[in-house]
Design goal:
The protein is about 0% helix and about 55% strand. The chain has about 120 residues and is mainly β. Strands 2, 4, 5, 6, 9, 10 and 11 form a 7-stranded mixed sheet that branches. A 4-stranded antiparallel sheet has the order 1-3-8-7, with no helix packed on it.
């Protein structure tokens, strides 16, 4: 059974950094595309960063390019390193994969950027 569990969110000051983690089970993340999405209050969910299965090619939303880095780690973990955080990065961040025709989502982790 596919499960995704995010962690690492919290309150951070503008200009600070956070690393989000997504623990995946039920499949091997290196074989499938993995994506981080976020949803800010009152806004639609948006794609933040994605990494392909084979090859590990990464793509980023223009709003986070150069500040965020998506990566895979040991033990079937997905990460999102977020640097130079801005108040507009405040959102619930979700881990996602598309596995055998089904989108799977975690419950999300809240990131608040505020002084």
């Amino acid at each position: 059974q596919v499960q995704l569990v995010e962690s690492g969110g919290g309150l951070v000051q503008p200009g600070g950094s956070l690393r989000l983690s997504c623990a995946a089970s039920g499949f091997t993340i290196s074989s499938y595309a993995m994506t981080w999405y976020r949803q800010a209050p009152g806004k639609e969910r948006e794609l933040v960063a994605t990494i392909t299965g084979v090859g590990g090619t990464t793509k980023y939303a223009d709003s986070v390019k150069g500040r965020f880095t998506i990566s895979r780690g040991a033990k079937n973990m997905l990460y999102l390193q977020m640097n130079s955080l801005k108040p507009e990065d405040t959102a619930v961040y979700y881990c996602n994969t598309y596995y055998y025709g089904v989108h799977y989502w975690g419950k999300g982790t809240l990131v608040t950027v505020s002084s």
